[in-house]
Amino acid sequence: DIQMTQSPSSLSASVGDRVTITCRASRGIGNSLAWFQQKPGKAPKSLIYAASSLQNGVPSKFSGSGSGTDFTLTITNLQPEDFAIYYCQQYRNNPPTFGQGTKLEIK
Amino acid sequence: LQLQESGPGLVKSSETLSLTCTVSGGSLTRNNLFWGWIRQPPGKGLEWVGNIYYSGSTYYTPSLKSRLTIVADTSKNQFTLKLNSVTAADTGVYYCASGWFAELYPDYWGQGALVTVSS
Q: Would you call A27 exposed, middle or buried from its count of C-beta atoms within 10 A (0-12, 13-18, 19+)?
């Protein structure tokens, strides 16, 4: 299985800040990477697919980049509703695998 | 597209966990989608369980393959997960999900169903 490692595991930031979360794959996955946001007690929500393509309806404050093994999710102008857990997922090889998650907390 | 999980919230150890996902706003017979299950142990991350396609073909994650069955009932627009010989390690929230068949990342998620395995 391809292992996905996110860093950091947790992150404190303030409203208005810009943050970046990193996801690293144990071997190359091209651009077959998705990002999800999960709030407490809710299902994950798809944000980005193909490493950098924004899902319909997702605000442009979210952006993704990378290819191969290293990927980033950047969120600008943090608002209270952005504080959540973020997961990356590779879908290049079966089984699809997720990172362990990055918890974004309010400072 | 909306997905909704249903099934028992409590299952005894060594028995079979069974959950059904009812699809609305779209047809299970769409040949460009996958229909899958993802689970999340309490306080932990996400794990792909398996998925089924319109053709009836399935993919099961290898660690669960020997215990797992996913079937579809197109007449009811539902698909069902059955996981046998469960243990406490199978406790968690089970999500049904869907997306484009060629790339296994979910665009659509159910709200999730908590299943607790008791001894």
A: exposed
